[in-house]
Amino acid sequence: MERKTTPKSRLVLQAARSCFLELGYDRTSMDLIAQKAGVSKATVYAHFESKEALLYGLIEEEFEIDGPPPLWDPNRPILDITAALTDIAHRFTAIFLTDKKLGFHRLIMTNASHFPAIAEIFMNGGPRRHLEEVRTFLERGIDAGLLCIDDLDLAAKQFLSLVQGDLPLNWALSMQPPEPGRYEALIKGGVRVFLAAYGATRKE
Fold first, then answer.
1. Same domain for 149 and 123?
2. Which of 48, 63, 81, 85 has the lowest tally of Cβ within 10 angstroms?
3. How far is CA 138 from CA 113, 158, 165, in A?
4. What residues form DSSP beta bridges with 65?
5. Residue 1 pLDDT level (bands cut at 50, 70, 90)
């Protein structure tokens, strides 16, 4: 889809965001989006040829403009591997703890089977990007003599699984996130287990 960046297209996207997140894709009509944006339906179609195009535009924008921040700063040296991994885990799990992200996740999950390209946008903007960031960090940790890993891809997946626990399941089921103390314990335990397996000083 060719991206639209006019002021009116921004109004339409903002209206679509509000309607999709509040009512869902199926219950939202182009008439409702036009009404919410304060423009005619013809104006909506002038910028987005269909409701599907609006959905794609909204999700693309979410990851391009307001996507998750980097998990770590590659310009900073790794001085404390435990602290660095803990910081990455906090940045990663923060994604699962906001109502806004919950709403977008629900929107994507309920429509991905009908619009496969949405799943690709989501995977490229979120999970695949995070895995690559963690993989690069782990590689840096190996170079610094802090980690001992044979399969970087596997280790990156294991790390993210350890520190996220059941947060994605809570998210998918629209359940409330755990109390801060619970996911702090999850992060600390996940980092500890990961380093027991891959730390350079682990016991063979």
1. yes
2. 63
3. 33, 12, 20
4. none
5. very low
